[in-house]
Amino acid sequence: MLDLSIVVGCYNAGNKLEGRLLELSTYLKTLGCTHELIVVEDGSTDDSYACLKSLATIVPELVVLRNERNRGKGFSICRGVDYASGRAILFTDVDLAYSFENIATALECLRLGHPIVVGNRRLPESIYTVNNTLVKYIYRRHLLGMAFNLLVRLLFGLDIRDTQSGLKGFDNAVAKRVFPGIRNSGFLFDIEIFIIAKELGLPVQEIAVHVTYEDDESTATQLGAFFSLLPQLGQIKQRQLKREYSEERFERLGARHLGESIDKVGTTSPAPTDSSRLA
Q: What pLDDT shows up at residue 233?
């Protein structure tokens, strides 16, 4: 078994994809552990897949999985985790907004016995690196994120203050137990992770992160993302009320095949840097 699996979802990642993954690959070698870098290509319409195939010829630890069509971030990450063989399994966003040192911190927490680790951008120790032109954008994003997270915590009875963080890590056995229960194929699959973890009595260790933002979007786009997710929140709440995330149901059904466990909702992925709009 490998020491570490890194899972990254990829949709129309653009011309920065090669450089980013080469940087990540170089950093992973410094950790001194056996590892694999799994990239799930989610039916991109640009040259992302061709770029990944080319990279795989020079980066031996790179594994490229391709969805036959655009299936969404949740589906892609679940597929990558299902494939992963590392003792520790981490997933992050393709824009690599989180510092590589945060990966090392998460890995160390997992080695110390924490079953689930999540980056928390709300912690006082967390650091944001942002261009001056993006300050207003980050402020708006932060306010929307706080509102969204408050809604999530009240609606689902969770105490995690950054459910949509783009850096999460799992002990292998825990990941293989949690991820078969995920039903949302879009950006809200993270919420299901924490609902399932709570049902299974799995503690979550939060860590401070260093996040770098390079792109912005309009207030209208941010608000649109917020309201477009409300129906999916309703679907997840219905499942929670029906006890579909309960430990008893997991034991009764057993681990399901990936294609059977994920609903076909929210299957269009936005641009790679939009993966955590509600920061």
A: 96
Q: Are strands 35-41 and 116-120 parallel, antiparallel or unpaired?
A: unpaired
Q: What is the pLDDT of residue 268?
A: 42
- Average pLDDT of the residues in 109-131: 95
What is the per-residue DSSP string for 142-208?
HHHHHHHHHHHHHHHT---S-TT-SEEEEEHHHHHHHGGG----STTHHHHHHHHHHHTT--EEEEE
Strand partners, 171: 88
Q: What single string gives the DSSP state of each residue in 56-88?
A: HTT-TTEEEEE-SS---HHHHHHHHHHH---SE
Supply 38's token pair. 């799994």
Tokens encoding 168: 């999460």
Q: State the amino acid at position 188 in one-letter form.
A: L
| Structure-token pair, residue 226 | 């917020």
- Say how far apart CA 24 and CA 274 lie, in whole Å: 20
What does the pLDDT look like over 17-66, one tens digit per residue?
A: 999 999 999 999 999 999 999 999 999 999 999 999 999 999 999 999 99
Residues 127-131, mean pLDDT to the nearest whole number: 90
| Full-model pTM | 0.88
Q: In angstroms, rounded to a whole number, what is the distance separating the alpha carbons of residues 11 and 41? A: 6
What is the maximal distance between C-alpha atoms in the chain?
53
According to the model, what pLDDT value does residue 218 have? 47
pLDDT of 255 over the 80 cut? no
Q: How many residues does the chain have?
A: 279
What b/e string do you get for 74-84 counting C-beta neighbours within 10 Å, with b at 16 or more?
A: bbbbbbbbbbb
Going by the DSSP 8-state scheme, the letter that residue 15 receives in this structure is: G
Distance CA 173, CA 175 (A): 6
Q: Residue 93 and residue 99: Cα distance in Å, rounded?
A: 11
